[in-house]
Amino acid sequence: MHFKADLQNSVPLFLTLWEIKRNQPRPQKKIVDHKSGSSLGEISKHLKVQRSSVQTIVCKYKHHGTTQPSYRSGRRCVLSPRDERTLVRKVQINPKTTAKDLVKMLEETGTKVPLSTGKRVLYRHNLKGRSARKMSLLQNRHKKARLRFATAHGDKDHTFGEMSSGLMKQKYNCLAIMTIVTFGGKRGRLASRRKQSQP
User: Where does the Sleeping Beauty transposase HTH domain start and stop, copy by copy (predicted)?
Assistant: First the structure.
């Protein structure tokens, strides 16, 4: 691909090179304007750039009429995929970690992120904050059933009360046995409790 020297066919070429130096924190931007008609090889030798890069920029200018980078729509992500993986790993190791703790950890590394962003990242990875519901042993329906039972059988004699309380005791003994089993009680203690509960 060659370019003639006449001004009508000459292509203005804006080459942007990024040179990162050790002393400078930001890369230095060099813009070179090339309007003379010459081949791609000559331009690449003159500017010390690869020929393929020069060809890409020329084709882009011919197609779009500019060499400015075409930005995508929308705001760029604040957190990189690596930061997201770090947050998810921290929560998986310690599930009691709050979103505020994660935001503070990111601020220490130099990334300032709102609290909603941290929550959104965790929610995207199916990590949702939930607190266990505290359920009482006797719920409202149990209390109502006991009250109904007491009002229905309130006029009976004391022998019926002893029989019904015996039923209640058996229920509580079952609960006591369950707590022993679940919290690692010994079998000997369990057997002795069973013997005591039986009349």
Answer: 29-68
Q: Which of 21, 38, 64 is the last residue of a domain?
A: 64
pLDDT tens-digit map of 156-196: 776 766 665 555 544 444 444 444 444 444 444 444 455 55
In a domain, 59, yes or no: yes
**Structural domain boundaries, residue 105:** 81-124
Domain count of the fold of the chain: 3
Centroid of chain to Cα 130: 15
**End-to-end C-alpha distance for the chain, whole angstroms:** 105
Total length of the chain: 199
Structure tokens at 123: 């929610």
CA dist., res. 13 & res. 54, Å (int):
8
24 found inside a domain? yes
How far is residue 107's CA from residue 113's CA, in Å, rounded to a whole number? 7
89 lies in the same domain as 52: no
